[in-house]
Specification:
Largest sheet: 5 strands, parallel
Mean pLDDT: 93
CATH class of the largest domain: Alpha Beta
Protein name: Ribosomal RNA small subunit methyltransferase I
Strand order of the largest sheet: 3-2-4-1-5
Low-confidence stretches: 1-5
Function: Catalyzes the 2'-O-methylation of the ribose of cytidine 1402 (C1402) in 16S rRNA.
CATH architecture of the largest domain: 3-Layer(aba) Sandwich
CATH superfamily of the largest domain: Tetrapyrrole methylase, N-terminal domain
Radius of gyration: 24 Å
Bound molecules: S-adenosylmethionine
GO molecular function: rRNA (cytosine-2'-O-)-methyltransferase activity
Number of domains: 3
Number of strands: 10
Catalytic activity: cytidine(1402) in 16S rRNA + S-adenosyl-L-methionine = 2'-O-methylcytidine(1402) in 16S rRNA + S-adenosyl-L-homocysteine + H(+)
Helix content: 40-55%
Order of helices and strands: EHEHEHEHEHEHEHEEHEHHH
Family: Belongs to the methyltransferase superfamily. RsmI family.
Distance between the termini: 50 Å
Length: about 290
């Protein structure tokens, strides 16, 4: 990756600009200034973004940069940047590249030694996390789950024991089946939060155990409309000896007689496949 030190100062800059996810007042003063000042705006959907530009009285020309032309058309934006023009990249809503086009363009532009500057702002997953009341120090963003049940369940299985808060985007017509599969895989007790229509008139945030959240969404078709983010509390290891099988405890006990506790937990983890940290805790309790 190119570093700032070798950037060519005669070329333009690519600004990656976040735009509102609903409430137009969320656009930043800096975003408006950049969108006004650049020579060209690369937009996911020019007709959609034209309305935003008209709202703010921004006359800057727009050119399409969507997932189907991003790789091929990248050279066109690159040529403008190389000629010294500044370009802004926007998507239909929120932060470009976050479940939106832009990755290939940014990569291409950086590889060419051209400066890329983020202009941060709205992002649905961050907005949802900031108000969810779920642990926010560490989290993972899974984007959209596969549309078909088999793929979706496989993906959920893969993150079933993920201790960090999980964040998913979901389409409204799939929200109910998504919550059903989450309940199936994570269990009905696991706390989750549905953040719907963020920053808009019908904004709703509701956090409940998955079984209750799924039942609430099933019983109210309004909850199956609009844009949504689903957050799920990370997996918590069951506490104490109950969390590991009798066989694992036997292995751990034998090893504890032969070696120091930390080593015994590590070797037992290798033999049994149970997490080392969990076995370490169990070993502490058993000594
Ligand atoms: N780039 C966007 C961002 O920064 O959040 C995400 C674009 S992605 C194509 C669209 C998805 O983001 C929606 O299906 C929904 O899951 C989520 N999303 C976008 N706006 C939202 C809103 N106002 N409320 C809840 N979720 C939203």
């Amino acid at each position: 990756m190119t570093t700032q030190g070798v950037l060519n100062s005669t070329t333009g800059t690519l600004y990656v600009v976040a735009t509102p996810i609903g409430n137009l007042d969320d656009i930043s003063a800096r975003a408006l200034k950049v969108l006004r000042d650049v020579a060209l705006i690369a937009a996911e959907d020019t007709r959609h973004s034209m309305r935003l530009m008209q709202h703010f009285g921004i006359p800057t020309p727009l050119a399409a940069c969507h997932e189907h032309n991003e790789r091929d058309e990248g050279s066109r934006f690159l040529a403008r940047l190389q000629a010294g023009d500044d370009v802004a990249l926007i998507s239909d809503a929120g932060t470009p590249l976050i479940s939106d086009p832009g990755y290939h363009l940014v990569r291409q532009v950086r590889a060419a030694g051209i400066k890329v500057v983020p202009v941060p702002g709205p992002c649905a997953l961050i907005a949802a996390l900031s108000a969810a009341g779920l642990p926010s120090d560490r989290f993972i963003f899974e984007g959209f789950l596969p549309a078909k049940a088999v793929g979706r369940r496989a993906r959920l299985e893969a993150v079933k024991e993920e201790p960090r808060t999980l964040i998913f985007y979901e389409a409204p017509h799939r929200i109910l089946e998504c919550l059903e599969d989450m309940e199936l895989v994570f269990g009905g007790e696991r706390v989750a939060l549905l953040a719907r229509e963020l920053t808009k008139t019908f904004e709703t945030l509701n956090g409940l155990p998955l079984a209750e959240l799924r039942a609430w969404v099933a019983s109210d078709s309004n909850q199956q409309r609009g844009e949504c983010v689903v957050l799920v509390a990370g997996w918590q290891a069951p506490e104490g000896d109950d969390a590991v099988s009798a066989d694992t405890l036997r292995v751990l006990d034998l090893l504890l007689k032969e070696m120091p506790l930390k080593r015994a937990a590590a070797v037992a983890a290798e033999i049994t496949g149970v997490r080392k940290n969990l076995l370490y805790q169990v070993a502490l309790e058993r000594q």
